């Protein structure tokens, strides 16, 4: 990842935040948005990821720990997240997977391993892959080597351990596709 790509990712996150909140993007508004806790958490992750991909190991680890301590967000630098992540509430969000562009994660969403499976669907052994435009509701969990198709909605409190087709809605516990 180049520094230019890093800047573009951060800009896409700011633009997505503005889009969701209905703000018009002037320079003053961009600066204001940059200091929102959710953008700070995403920026801290992105900076750690940028440094991690450039061979640094200690500083990304420090940034990862800072993200947990200050914003309550658990996103290790090995996680791959596309452009325009929207995370309005940072507390309790855990992401250890591959996320496509324009994904949304609400408070206490957990996306990652934990199934004990060694199956790799593209994110690493036992980790999920989310397509573009996936919305993960508050307290939803996506666990194990599963794929969630682009445009899907994972409802609040859903517990997903299976593949979800594109443009689907998944609700309840245990999760079921509507």
Q: Helix and strand succession?
A: HHHHEEEEEEEEEEEEE
According to CATH, what is the class? Mainly Beta
Helical region count? 4
Poorly predicted segments: none
Based on CA atoms alone, the radius of gyration comes out at: 16 Å
Shape: globular
- Topology, number of strands: 13
The total domain count is: 1
Task: Identify the strand order in the major beta sheet.
Answer: 4-7-10-12-13
Q: Report the CATH topology name.
A: UDP N-Acetylglucosamine Acyltransferase, domain 1
Arithmetic mean pLDDT:
93
Strand content: 15-25%
Distance between the termini: 38 Å
What is the CATH architecture assignment? 3 Solenoid
CATH superfamily: Hexapeptide repeat proteins
| Helix content range | 25-40%
Question: How would you sum up this structure, described in words?
Answer:
This protein is of the alpha/beta class. The protein has one domain: 3 Solenoid (UDP N-Acetylglucosamine Acyltransferase, domain 1). The chain is 33% helix and 16% strand. It contains four helices and 13 strands. The strands form three sheets. A five-stranded mixed sheet has the order 4-7-10-12-13, with no helix packed on it. Strands 1-3-6-9 form a four-stranded parallel sheet, with no helix packed on it. Strand 12 and strand 13 form a beta hairpin. The protein is globular, with a radius of gyration of 16 Å. The mean pLDDT is 93.
